[in-house]
Amino acid sequence: MGRVSDARQRLLEATNELTWKLGYNAVTVDAICEKADVRKGSFYHYFESKPALAKAALEAQWESYSRPLLEASFAADIPPLERLKRYMETMYKNQKEKKQRGERVLGCPIFSVAMSGEGVEAEVVEAAQRALKRKLRYFQTAIQDANDAGLIKVDDTEAATQAVYSLFEGAWARARIQNSPEPLAGLYEQALRLLGAAEQESPPKKSRVA
Amino acid sequence: MGRVSDARQRLLEATNELTWKLGYNAVTVDAICEKADVRKGSFYHYFESKPALAKAALEAQWESYSRPLLEASFAADIPPLERLKRYMETMYKNQKEKKQRGERVLGCPIFSVAMSGEGVEAEVVEAAQRALKRKLRYFQTAIQDANDAGLIKVDDTEAATQAVYSLFEGAWARARIQNSPEPLAGLYEQALRLLGAAEQESPPKKSRVA
DNA sequence: CTTGAATTTGACTAGACGGTCAACTATACT
DNA sequence: AGTATAGTTGACCGTCTAGTCAAATTCAAG
Questions:
Q1: Which DSSP string do the residues of B177-203 spell out, in sequence order?
Q2: Looking at residue B99, what DSSP letter applies?
Q3: Which residues in chain A have their CB less than 8 angstroms from residue B130's CB?
Q4: For chain A, what percent of residues have pLDDT higher than 70?
Q5: Could you tell me how many helices (H) and strands (E) chain A has, helices first?
Q6: Residue B199: its pLDDT value, please?
Q7: Min Cα separation B4/chain A (Å)
Q8: Which structural domains are found in chain B, ordered by start?
Q9: Straight-line distance from CA A74 to C1' D1, in Å?
Q10: Distances in Å between the alpha carbon of B152 and those of A33, B52, B79, B192?
Q11: What ipTM score was computed for the predicted complex, to two decimals?
């Protein structure tokens, strides 16, 4: 019964856009309301507080953005290393296109929130941490599968996975910092080295002098 | 002439401590003043604004903290790969000890500020970016030296350096997120794989099944 | 001991912030 | 058509925030 509205959805989207660009603490309730074209009273009709909205927004973003992107690249019917390749190259292309469109390179929408640590309500940080852990699982599965298929050569699969993940998140974070997609370029090849799985080699060059 | 004081210094230190823990936007001038035991009026005697202080604090931190740590590990008379090893293991130990002392694992004091992007005054972000670029140069020199000495085997030295740096910063960031030093454990060995410089090998194991 | 510059102080402001509320409006269901 | 209910509105509040200032204090140097 009663009226219908998509104000809740608009609030979630506005929150994610602003938080991605500015970081959680730099985003105000007023700014969210303005962007979503919703009055403050309505805001508190849908969410009991700013952190509650931020938490819901992160979860919505996981479902509508991050998860689909991951599922597309990490589909189980794709060869395991191909999954990594697809994901990394898709992310690179995404950021590159953004840059060419004149937009800023914003990196991972979840990572910067997760990094806030204290200084942001635990509720929000924990939602971001959960999302990052889920993301890690795609890497773990793919690399485990690659290992089972004998495609990689590592002493410690888990350590290698962590390293690939750190490499990826680090590159993505640096892309944001530099406002450039370049740190994400050629990441797959670097990941292969971590995994002891040199691909079809191009002719190796010897050392060169500075 | 006139009075002498170390209030300026105390303000810089308080700013760095709080920013490291909470992130720039969660730190208020009042909190800084309280921690430094300085009244607000004095604050604005020494710094013309909050971002101006933050910028000065980042520069002070580079000189008094980051730079010494880097210089100690990356001294030119140490073999190039040994430099990387020392740095990474020092950072790991640092964070591990912090954790054992019951403190939080805070990661890189500069990285989180640099990641703020818009939403933090350009002045502050740029100071952080400068510091990160300087840090990268230590990696570049060490890896270039390793390459010149034939210690590593990479097609593209610069790309490998970027990857090692992304790996390191990514791991450090994840350490903060997880409040655990573990992402930094064994990083040097992973870096060696990126550089095509397998160390004194332990007997290699073949793939294993989940 | 005087002088005057450097420093300290606390009270002050204006605006932004997160959040509240009671009244109002639209509409899906009976 | 009537009504309960979901959604909307804008004015309002207390607190926090960055920043100001004129007056008071300290002390190095002449």
A1: HHT-SGGGTTHHHHHHHHTT---SPPP
A2: H
A3: none
A4: 94
A5: 10, 0
A6: 67
A7: 34
A8: 61-194 (1.10.357.10)
A9: 57
A10: 55, 43, 12, 8
A11: 0.92
